[in-house]
Please model this.
Amino acid sequence: MVHGYGRIPIVSWLRGQADESLVHAQEAGELITQLEGHPSLGIGSLLESHTHDIGAILEESLKHEDQGLAAYADLLALVEGRSVMLEEYARRMISDETRHVGEVKKMLRAPGD
Model:
């Protein structure tokens, strides 16, 4: 749904984010099964404003990243001191999500800001 001069780099970036999300989901599933759990095959709610300009899409992406960051922070608080493996996983995901939030915020800034 991205149109205009910035389409190619934005679509490429969004596809990279989607690919990384799949890798994260697979890794989470592997950790869950390693701990003898059963990962959900459900898909969470989707953030969709039905506004398809690049700014709105990036705002949706930022909300998604913020939700992920909060979930990983909750996980870290839950496992801290109980599982080094899960602590390290949560810390790595927090680092990744923090970097993503920064990238989106940079894209949302107007030139010269």
About this structure: Helices lie at 7-34, 54-79, 84-108. The mean pLDDT is 91. Residues 7-34 form the longest helix (28 residues).
